[in-house]
Amino acid sequence: MKKNSSSIRSLVAISICIPFFTGCANVTTGTGGTAVTGAAAGGASAGANADLERCDKTLGTLAVDDGREANWYHSFGSATSITTIEPLIRLAVQQSNCFVLTSIGNARTDSRLSRITDMQRNSGEYRAGSKQQKGQRVAADYYMEPQIIIDNDSTGKVGAAIGGAFNPLVGALAGALETKVSVVTLSLFDIRSSVQISISEGSSTANNYGAALGGFGGGAGGALGGFSRTPAGKATVAAFFDAYNGMVRALKHYEAQKVEGGLGRGGALKVN
User: Fold this and answer.
1) Which residues make Cβ contacts (< 8 Å) with residue 52, sequence separation at least 6?
2) Residues contacting 134, CB < 8 A, separation 6+
């Protein structure tokens, strides 16, 4: 009887374990994203954030700086595990229909496209009529520069006394929960004149969940430590989303600044 009972328990264990190797794990797509969601194709978009500002008319072509040469780029990536913010800015911009995007601004992408173009045009291996002649690239009218001003600065920890009044464990967890803020700017320049057209600020906050997980002990904090980076990175993406929305709202009421006598000709502030 004991042997049969043991065999039954083994079979139960096997029947429980097998689903994990036969596709029974629950995998969900479309979750864990940022404030910038969905897709874009030309002037059409799918699944865009409902709060994204949009333009009825496209304003021109745009180059977006990839940030790789900025002084904030590497330290921000190390702290948040965010490898780049440029594609998400590009996604929001194209979904908004405010600009047509070019590869210029991303040195790696532009270099690769140039290499492919050169190979197709000059290798002699491609069919005649493939239309790889010079003069087909579209110039950018405007240049957008993202900047992180405040990189996930701490705004203080939640008071442990609030949770501790009800449960010591909750109090310890609340005491470790830290709120951080990201403040960013987006600048828009006219490329031909180098004049700044628009600038906007955006901000967002995130909770440092990784620090809070430490309230459950080293095991839980170590196993789930990735959460300490994800919220802060997502907050910065949300801050850029906020900045872009503000810029679009301002551009909808854009008026070119005028200087008597013309731009770059001495200005109105005379010096004796």
Assistant:
1) 92, 95, 96, 241, 245
2) 121
Long-range contacts of 166-172 (CB under 8 A, 24+ apart): 169/215, 172/215
Q: Give the integer Cα–Cα distance in Å for 250 and 244.
A: 10
Residue 88 DSSP class: H
For 21-49, b/e burial (b = at least 16 CB within 10 A) is: eeeeeeeeeeeeebbbbeebeeeebeebb
94-113: pLDDT as tens digits: 999 999 999 887 777 878 88
Q: How far is CA 105 from CA 45, 76, 116, 224, in A?
A: 23, 20, 18, 36
Distance CA 177, CA 207 (A): 7
pLDDT in tens, 178-207: 677 889 999 999 999 999 999 999 998 876
User: Taking a C-beta distance cutoff of 8 angstroms, is the pair 60, 100 a contact?
Assistant: yes
What average pLDDT does range 245-272 have in this prediction?
A: 91
Residues facing residue 204 across a β-bridge: 182
Q: What is the DSSP letter of 22?
A: T
145 neighbors 189 (Cβ within 8 angstroms)? yes
The pTM of this model reads 0.70
- Distance CA(114)–CA(39), nearest Å, equals 25
Residue 157 has phi, psi (to 5 degrees) of -105, 150
* Token output for 228: 């300490």
